[in-house]
Amino acid sequence: MAINWFPGHMAKTRREIKENLKLVDAVIEMRDARAVRSSANPEIDELCELKPRIILLNKKDLAETAITKQWIDSLSTENIKVIPVNCLNGDGLKNIKKVLNELLFEKHERKRNKGISNIIDRVMVVGIPNVGKSSFINKLANSSIARIGDKPGVTKSRQWIKTKLGIELMDTPGILWPRLENNEVQYDLAFTGAIKDEVMDIETLALKLIAKLQEIQPERLSARYKIGTLSEDPLENMDMIGKKRGAIISGGEIDYNRIAVMLLDEFRGGKLGPISLEKPIITLEKKDEK
Question: Are the C-beta atoms of residues 82 and 76 closer than 8 Å to each other?
């Protein structure tokens, strides 16, 4: 299954990012800490490669701390710094100014040498839809100037937002991949809610999530739904979950739609505990650095 979703507003966003990079000092890229690889649009790497960048791994409370640390080690370079955050409660956001000062140290020194003391950093915020950009901006600005929605694609146009940290933020609409042909990436994005449920078969999506959890966190799946020993067949496990939760319709049939909605909501809300869907691939170069 290949999802093609590059409508006009996303093509426009790509052009805006490219055109407006010259106006900013650095880029803040938002990713989902549960699906760090899948929530990274490779076009952002291409567009922003020459700009100092902070990657915020949002929803860190929903991901496994040890795996998040692996991602930090894997992604960090001289020009890219990685910070795990929770944009709803602000956890981790206080580190942004310090890290930004480190990335822009030489630029700040040049300004100070010219007698400029009031230095305002202009930063572009980028990322795929529904990864938390608006929540981040609102928390940093201590306002609700950027609209928040729990559906992908709420932010439609560029905004400049002032903060009390000496940082001005340029918001951009979420930009998804032009075409998703990798099924694993599609499903990991859909599990976290980055892809609208309306464009997926929600019952199949829930079944795929069960299969994924059987692979990476079987104990959490079993404990949450009190189903004891898991079957190797995800459908059988879905049936057991349905029976445990009383999702039965007339004739004793399982209400798969009800189970699908419940399972996805509980995963996204952290009811199964912190779960990382992806681990980084540690290259030889990164191993050598350590």
Answer: yes
Pairing of strands 167-171, 159-162: antiparallel
Both tokens assigned to 120: 């305002």
How many Cβ atoms are within 10 Å of 281's Cβ, its own excluded?
A: 8
Query: Residue 26 pairs with which residues in a beta bridge?
Result: 123
Helix-helix angle 218-225:234-244, to 10 degrees: 30
Closest listed residue to residue 285, CA positions, set 78, 74, 72, 80: 74
Cα separation, 151 vs 76, in Å, equals 30
Map residue 129 onto helix, strand or coil. Answer: coil
Q: Give the integer Cα–Cα distance in Å for 218 and 225.
A: 11
Residues 6+ apart with CB under 8 A from 115: none
Helix ranges restricted to H, 104-201: 105-113, 133-141, 183-192
Q: Please say whether the beta carbons of 86 and 58 come within 8 A.
A: yes
CA 1 to chain centre: 22
If we measure between CA atoms, which residue out of 87, 58, 90 comes closest to residue 71? 58
* Cα distances (Å, whole numbers) of residue 65 to 30, 34, 71, 171, 217: 18, 10, 10, 28, 14
Contact 41, 131 (CB under 8 A): no
Distances (CA, A) of 217 to 214, 224, 225: 6, 11, 13
Q: Position 104: which residue type?
A: L
* Chunked mean pLDDT (size 10), the chain, 290 residues: 53 79 94 95 82 97 97 96 96 94 94 89 89 89 57 51 88 68 85 88 96 97 95 97 92 94 97 97 57
